[in-house]
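Allow me, if you will, to draw on your knowledge of protein folds for a short while. I have a record of one protein: its chain in single-letter code and its fold written as discrete structure tokens. I remain grateful for any guidance, and I place the record below:
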Amino acid sequence: MSSPCEQLAAFVDGELPLDDTEAFRVHLVDCESCQADLEDQVQASLAVQAAAEARAASGPEARPGDSFGWSPGAEARSGEVLGAVRPVAPPPGRSERPRSRPTPAWDRRRVAGFAAAAAAVVLAVLAVVRPWRESGTERELPFAVASARPLEGRLSHPGLADYRAQGTMRGGADGRPELNLPALAALEAKGDLHGVATAWLAARDFARAAPILERLPSSPAVLGDRALAALGQGQPERALGLLEAGLEAAPDDARLHWNRGLALQALSLELAAAAEFQRVAQAKEPGWSAEATERADGLRQGALARRDSWQAMNTAGMALALEGTPYPAPMARRNPDLARLYLYHALRAAPSVARVRALAPLADVLDDASRTKTASAYVARVAAADFGKRGPLADTYREVLAGTRTLVGAEADAFLAKLRRSGERDLLLGAVLLLRQEDRFVEELATLVRQSGEPAWYEAPLARGRAQAALARGDTQTAEKSLQEGLASCRSAGFQYRCVDLQQHLSALYNRLDRRKEAQKLARSALEEAFRTDSWFQEEVLLSDLVTSARLSHAPALARAYLDEYVQHAPEDCARRSEYHHARALLAVEDLDAKAARREVQDALGCPTAPTLLEIAVAGDLLRLEGTAVPGRELDRVRERIRVLREDPSLTAGDQLLVNHLEGRILIERDPEAGQKLLRGVIAGSALRRSTDIEARKAWAHSHHVLVMDAGRSKEWGPAVELLAEEVDRTAPTSCLLALAGQDERLLFVARGPTGASDGVYLHALKRPLRERVPAVPERILQLLSGCDAVRVLAEPILQGRPGLLPADRAWSYLAPGGHRVEAPAVAPTSKRLVVSDVEPPAALSLPRLMPWKGVAAPGDVHLRGRAATPDAVLAEMEDATEVELHTHGLSGAGLSDAAFLVLSPDTAGRYALTAEDLEGHTLRGAPVVLLAACDANVGAWRYHAVWSLPSALIQAGARAVVAPSTEVPDVEAGAFFQRLLESLRRGEPPAQALRDTRERWLQQGRATWVQDLVAFE
């Protein structure tokens, strides 16, 4: 029998049968002789291919520029992968997308070329397992000698360490360097997989580079290149995470800092990017340092120019309002809304008719910008006023505006009353806004706005006042609606400055409600608008909101990026630096890095400032994480800071509950009895407020959590379960129960077996955050539950819905939280099955069309399909359904919701998503079983105080049970599986048992294992 090694040439030339090819690949992995000869054979095949191409090029059918779909160039030198950076323009009449030439099956010369590349891929895979032994000289890339670098970023391959200026073209072509695929195959044959990926990066083919880089062992160099691939694909947030991981191992790597600067710049964080490039400049690398300095200076100048412009506009505005100094027309045209704001202040503060008439030219400029006559009309109205009566009132307004007089409490009310009696309604309107009394006088303000002659300008502050009043009542829905309607009106009128203000307030509301994706999207949009008008102050407020939304989204690298920009706006501000370090400390705590958190806190202590909730929260977590290593004086210092914080008059009742919770959380680690007493007081104080006050709701949930963990630490299993049940508003089953609670480094398992016997396991030193990995249920807990037919799982919000908690051969389901849950009807409803399928997602989503639904519809079934399956139509039909099947795409992390949502057919307004938010306020009267046959439909938002997911929202709305996948669902299998599951449910099997049995049968048939990630909720 011939040796397998004799098949090497046939393998490379693609002449082996398929089975023999696979066998030879297995042989190649362990055969050093074949590995040694493989490169020579590949090169020989490439030479044959090159000769064939040369002959073909001399014939009449040759087409210049075609070679594996790329244009290597007629002058490409032997061994070059990339030539000079030149735009590759398609020949006239050809598509701009490169296409490979058809390859006849009988052309062995072509097959040899493709086979050589295939063999090289095998070699590349081998190189990952057993890297080639070669000198640094041999690893130098053939294109490293090019005169210009093809990317803005810094590639990490050793052959590219020397500086080259960037070869950016200012024309319309994409400037892609030319790629020679035979030379690329030669790199693969050498086993230089990093070199191959670098070649694709340099060619700006980031989609091809990324998967190769992901197969390489992680290192700072590889992480830096993966970040460049992410940047090239428009993913700066992902790039930041990769770069931070690289910088943890190599904190002084100038290449990583350079690329982080680019990622920050891509997010328009110019000052943070400038600081990053300045750090690179300090490394004194030839060429690189000079360019880094230029980049840093340019970015800094651009940002500071906006700051200076903003300050100049405000200085000019105050001079206009207080002294009548003319406002420069160029400034008015730069930010007409800000100029209008100051013009109207000036009209109200004007002491005489002459001062008013002097404002007419600015009014004309603003009317030209808005294409209205409202500003000029206002000037005319005020000029006709009786200044014998108006003058003294205007003087008071001017003093308050200048800050030389303060009106609060009774004095403010007296001034407003005087204005009401005077009949100077424009002054009354302005004073309500100047004194920030919008929420107290909403109805009066609405009347004043209607009578103002320019209601569109005042709709934004009116909307803000309505929202503030609603929030004071705990009515977040009305607050959201008010801001949304105000924003729509503002956009219609075109008042950009007002719109940015409303977007900021709406973003802050969404952060408060833990709706992070919506908050981030709004704030990013508003930030871009603020850039365009040099609205520096608005930039700062929005950056603060973005820090919060990124942190709540558990995107620490992005949160740190926004923090870096925020602090660079005023690095000399000590209070800001303290806030910066405390925020970074909290991010470190969430990553269970107590040492890093302590360093940040020590840096913060260098700035003596008033205490904040953030500071106290970080201090409490650190005292727990560091345990007995913390000196007693640190506890005394923190408690003194809590005492001072309680005296802050700006704290709301909900904030005060959170302060008490934080003190109880700290005390319970040192004095359990005192801590328990304080936390139970918080629970009592928040019980009635939590339905309307989000801070009270958080204080309720967090205080319960601390008491649950304290009971678990003391092995008081019964009290731990009862406290957990109270936290999530559910009655805990007396048997066959698994209870889960945890946060940060701690996790508690408690089980009640079939007889009601209890046992638990308390883990207190986890090394990885729970959002990354939940430890397996301990064996002794599994043993206690082994006699149960079905297990009910009671879990805290961040642990609710985790797939694979118990083995696939066990029947188990989550008990969804109670609270405002709609109870099942007393009388069994009429059966109604709703099927949603064959939806037509918006083309912009680029989602593949799903296979047509193949089920059988029975009489009385409602089948929404195609364009009819819009969100409103589905919600309407769900309300009295008893069975619901939703066969569609599911998306998570897409920006519309923090939880996964379903993609349906768009309605006339373009709305296509069915989210957890959409289910609020709906009642599912038929108490249906809902089957979510959509990818990731079980993915919920990471919230500590409440569950937010589609399954939970459906249960809250009245669903009897929900089954949802936690991963991707294959389209060709989903319909059949869920049909079998529905048949089991119709036979009366409880959801947990029906899911287990259907899954077992599915797996026994050798079907795909995606069904193991299905989760049942009841």
